[in-house]
Amino acid sequence: MAKRVLTDTFNRTHNYLRISLTERCNLRCLYCMPENGVPLQADDKLLSSQEIVQLSKLFVSQGVDKIRLTGGEPTVRKDFLPLFEEIGSIEGLKELAITSNGIALPRKLPFLKDAGLTAVNISLDTLVEAKFNFFTRRRGLQRVLDAIDKAIEVGVPKVKVNTVVMRGQNDDEILDFVEMTKNKPIQVRFIEYMPFEGNKWSNKKMVSYFEMLDIITRKYHISPITHRPGDTAKNFSVAGHMGSVGFITSMTSNFCSTCNRLRITADGNMKVCLFGNEEVSLRDMLRSGATEAEMLELIGLAVGRKKGAHADMDLLKTMKNRPMILIGG
User: Fold this and answer.
1) What class of enzyme is it (predicted)?
2) Mind giving me the DSSP string for 282-293?
3) Coil, strand or helix: which one is 88?
C-alpha cells in the first residue's frame, strides 16, 4: 500500500510516475513543438541515468507501481535500452510503459518486451502520408505503422495509439482510426487538443469528446468499458472489433478527481499536474547530497499542494507552462 507521502489533501494516492528521459525528439509535431523549436539544455542539466534509477527506486519504495518513460522521444536517448532494463528490474514495479512516436521503435521492441515492457502508447495523428509529413515536419508514417504491428507481434500486453484530434486537420479521419481497431488488438485513444506554450491552441481547433462520440456512433455500435479510478480515458468496445477506442477528455470532462499521476521532467523537476506550472527540482536536491528523508519531505510537500482540479481551458490557454516537448507525454 502506498505511503502517505504520495497522498494529497484530496486523498488521491499517486502510484503512477511518468519520467521524461530527454528533451530531444526526432519529430517536430505541431501541437507539441513550438514552430521555432525549443532551446535544449546542456547534458549536465539533465538527469543522469543513475539519477533516474535512484528516483525511480525512491518513488517505488513509496508505493509507485507503474512507471512510464516519455520524452521528447525516449528512444533517442543514447542509453535508453540499458536504462529501461535497469528500471524494469526494480523490485515492486508492476508496470513499465513507454510513450513513443514509433519512428525508432520497431527494432527495439523485442528487447523491450524481454526487459519488462507492459504497455506502449504510440503517437499517430493521421493515416495520410502527406498530412503526416506536415504535422510532424518529418517523414516516417510507414515506420510508425510498422511499430504498431511489431508491438502486437512481440506480444506487448497493451498497445495504444494516441491521436490528437484537431479541427480542419485530422477530424475527417476519426472513422479511419476506429476502423484500425477492427483486426488489431489495439486501443485508439482520441485526445482533445490541449493548450501548451507555443502550440497556437484555440478552442475553435478543439474537437470535443461529445462531437467525436457523435461522429463514431453514427457508424459504429460502441459500449462503455468499466472505468477504473485513475483511468485517463473513457473507454469503449466496438461491436465486431478486436480492439477498442478511448477518449482523453481533459478539456471538456476532466478526470482530476481520481488523478494518480506525477511527472518528472528531463531536467529533474517534479510536476504534480500536467497543466500546473509549479515545479520542484529533485535534481538539485539529489546533487546537493540530500538524504532520502529530505527528498521524501520535499516530494510530500509538493504532492500536498496539488490542486483539486486544473483550470478550465479558457484560463489554461493564458497560463505560463512549458511546451509539451519539455514536459513529457
Assistant:
1) lyase
2) HHHHHHTT--HH
3) helix
Best CA proximity match to 96, nearest among 86, 107, 106, 110:
86
Cell output for 218: 453514427
Asked whether the beta carbons of 93 and 87 are under 8 A apart, the reply is yes
Residue type, 207: V
Instruction: State what percent of residues in the chain have pLDDT above 90.
Output: 71
pLDDT of amino acid 226: 86
Q: Which of 187-201, 228-242, 285-299 has the lowest mean pLDDT?
A: 187-201
- What's residue 316's pLDDT? 47
Domains of the chain: 4-326 (3.20.20.70)
The DSSP line for 219-267 is: T--EEEPPPPTT-SEEEEEETT-SSEEEEE-TTTS--GGG--EEEE-TT
CB burial of residue 317 (10 Å; 0-12, 13-18, 19+): middle
Cα gap 4→299, rounded to integer Å = 11
Coil/strand/helix, residue 187: strand
Q: Closest Cα to residue 161, out of 75, 247, 238, 234? A: 247
Q: Are 326 and 38 in contact (CB under 8 A)?
A: yes
CB count in 10 Å sphere of residue 97: 22
- Measured CA to CA, the distance from residue 321 to residue 316 in angstroms comes to 9
Q: Which residue has the cell 467525436?
A: 212
